[in-house]
Amino acid sequence: METDLRHDSALHDDGSLEPTPIRFGTKIAVLLRDDLLNWQRLNVTAFLVSGIAATNPELVGEPYADADGHGYLPMFRQPVLVFAGSSQTLASSFTRASDRGLAMSIFTSDLFRTGNDRDNRAAVRAVPRDDLDLVGLALHGPRNTVDKALKGARMHP
Fold it and tell me: Quick check: is 38 in a domain?
């Protein structure tokens, strides 16, 4: 389900080849509550996308290397789009994503008071689903499905 990657080239009238744009059949998206502080936005985004990478290894490309041969870690093969919205937009998107069967990573306000994965999981586990104070979520799935789940959210400024 990953993507429709097109690696062919288009031949121009002058004989030059230009790579055809890569089209992705899926979307990686992060939705953040719009009242977060800057450091919180960055922290939440990093945590949320780690869940997408961990459960979708096919989304991660090959390692990078510079011209001198120094190696760097691989990254996602496709863009990550970051959106913002009110707490109501986040709650509605959470419900629509759940109803559409999209797997998601979540970040709640309680996680700002913890310092490790064990305590993070315990903090989420302690709260019923309808009472989670969501500050962010990340989704990966078919483009149209993700778009419908995020209806009402706007691109992060």
Answer: yes
The whole-model pTM stands at 0.85
Helix (H) or strand (E) holding 9: strand 9-11
AA letter at 101: G
- Give the number of other CB atoms < 10 A from CB of residue 109: 16
The answer to whether position 10 is within a domain reads no
Put the strands of the sheet holding 134-142 in their side by side order: 104-108, 134-142, 26-33, 80-85, 154-155
10 pLDDT exceeds 70? no
Let me know the angle formed at the C-alpha of 152 by 147 and 156, rounded to the nearest 5 degrees.
85
Q: Is residue 11 part of a domain?
A: no
Q: What is the CATH number of the domain that holds 117?
A: 3.40.1490.10
Contact status, residue 60 vs residue 3, Cβ threshold 8 Å: no
Do the domain assignments include residue 19?
Answer: no
Domain extent, residue 37, equals 24-155
How many domains does the chain divide into? 1
Using the structure block, give the residue that is written with the tokens 């009472």: 131
pLDDT per position as a tens digit, 45-68: 999 999 999 999 999 999 999 999
